[in-house]
Amino acid sequence: MRKLLIGIMLLWLAVLIVFPLAGIVSNALREGWAPFAAALDQPETVHAFKLTLIITVIAVAVNVVFGTIIGLVLARQSFPGKTLMEELVSMPLAVSPVVAGFMFILLFGKNGWLGEWFAAGGIPVIYALPGMILATVFVTLPFVAKEVVPVLLEIGTEQEAAARTLGASPWQTFRRVTLPSIRWGLVYGITLTMARALGEFGAVLVVSGNIIGRTQTATLHIHEAYTNLEFQGAFSASLVLAAVSFAVLLIMEAVKRRMEDGKET
Amino acid sequence: MILRITRPQSHVTSPGRIGLRSAGAGYILVLVVLPILAITWEAFRKGPGAILADLARPEALYSLRLTFILAFAMILINSVMGTLTAWVLVRYRFPGKALINALIDLPFAIPTVVTGLMLVVLYGPASAMGSFLNRHGVEVIYAKPGIVLALLFVTLPFVVRAVQPVLMAMDTEMEEAAASLGAGRWTIFRRILFPSMTPAILTGAAQAFSKALGEFGSVVIVAGNIPMRTQVAPVYIYGEIESYNTSGALAVSLVLLAGSFAVLILLNLARRFGRCGDA
To answer: Does the reported pTM lie above 0.90?
Structure first.
């Protein structure tokens, strides 16, 4: 029985994850290292990866700040409407990426609610970088807040109260007491945010207009290369993104272990 | 003096706390509430009749039905395989277990477009596996099984990660007692293990279902996207946006949103209800 179940599980994971992963590695490197590197050295490809990096950095920065604030509010304060706020924070997880992008077109597009206003101010949102950042910030909004809340609840308020009694200001208390104790939860939230921001496709596709060399991110570039049957380009870029995701995953595992160790001591 | 300093905690609403609360609420208001409000308002602006007319288009209706049916097929498979995987990872020791446990999270880290490409590379008509399956009359890529495969990949962690902690917290005493009283393996599973795992399985399945309704990146590559055959709702919405048919996109978006929210709200209600029952 034991061997049978282990066997079924291994086969399942092999068919679903391991073989497809091996497939992309072997296809990207089928012709050797040189074509793989050459496909990545195209100016559009380099630009696409740069754009993805910029969007990811901004999305992570914004959501670390606001995710921590939301986490603190949800874990440390009680007020009417708190349950609603909790539900709203996780709402982006239930929205299809395409629909998420569509919402921002309705708000900031040519005939959108705020579109004219922003156009008058000379800030293009849709088919431009600000819209792509907004869409990415939206889809990654829940991660930091949701990782920080349980950690805050677990550490309790005793140490913070002690610090305040000893005369520390709220900011000092946060920086010296709260922040160090939630840091692994925060790092875990950041890795989840990073993984999603690096790989976001649907929402960004809808708001970006997919203009090559201007609003094309790494995932959009892969999609375009694939639809144009430029397989070497698509596979090479995919392999890079998959490798980065793998690295993010390793960080996640390490952090998880850290968090569990922290609980025991 | 001392009294004044020793009340930093409690429900006193200091300006700082109110500021923090306003910042958090304002952020959510602008980034979550406003967009959802916009899409709902725009959809209902021309009245429910217009929405129904847009939904009555055969392609729209078909894409929605296909999305819900395939998502349902996915959770059936995922519930069984996810529970099995969680069971093996918690109850058995074998070499490479830590690595496999880490592998479960991979679908959360891999970009959906890359997922789609990986599946096409391995199971597509040009691959050895794909042509073998084709010769036996099984079409995977550019057909419905391919869509289910993509959905299974992107939702793999949900059930496993929901069931694992429950199994870890479970005592084996009850099972041993049942075994000593002569219960067979199947009876123990059916009468003891399954009932205690059910809430966790449902939680994972609901999250997976909600995610599957909206999945785009992996499906758009794997499905072939032929209207009335392999076009799911998010791909239909994308097509309508690209052809500037806003009202068509709005109607289907609304149904998709309602479906996802309904599943998650039901799940939350069930959880709250369950918690009250425990106490």
So the answer is: yes
- Min Cα distance B84 → chain A (Å) is 7
Beta-carbon pairs below 8 A across chains A and B: 251
Give B93-138 pLDDT, tens digit per residue: 999 998 899 899 999 999 999 999 999 999 998 888 889 988 998 8
Q: What is the DSSP letter of A123?
A: -
B88 and A9 within 8 Å at the Cβ level: the answer is yes
**Shortest alpha-carbon distance between residue A89 and chain B (Å):** 7
Q: Which residues of B touch A85 (CB under 8 A)?
A: 24-25, 28
Number of other CB atoms surrounding residue B129 within 10 Å: 16
Kindly report, residue by residue over A56-102, the tens digit of the pLDDT.
999 999 999 999 999 999 999 999 999 899 999 999 999 999 999 99
Nearest to A161 among B9, B17, B42 (CB): B9
The rounded Cα A51 to chain-centroid distance in angstroms is 14
* Distance in angstroms (rounded) separating the CA atoms of residues A252 and A241: 16
> What does the alpha-carbon distance between residue A107 and residue A126 come to, in Å, rounded to a whole number?
9
Q: Calculate how close chain B gets to A260, using CA atoms only, in Å.
A: 13
Site of tokens 């709250």: B272
Q: Do B81 and A90 touch (CB under 8 A)?
A: no
The DSSP element (H or E) to which B220 belongs, if any, is: helix B217-222
Structure-block tokens of residue A142: 């829940």
Cβ count near B20 (within 10 Å)? 20
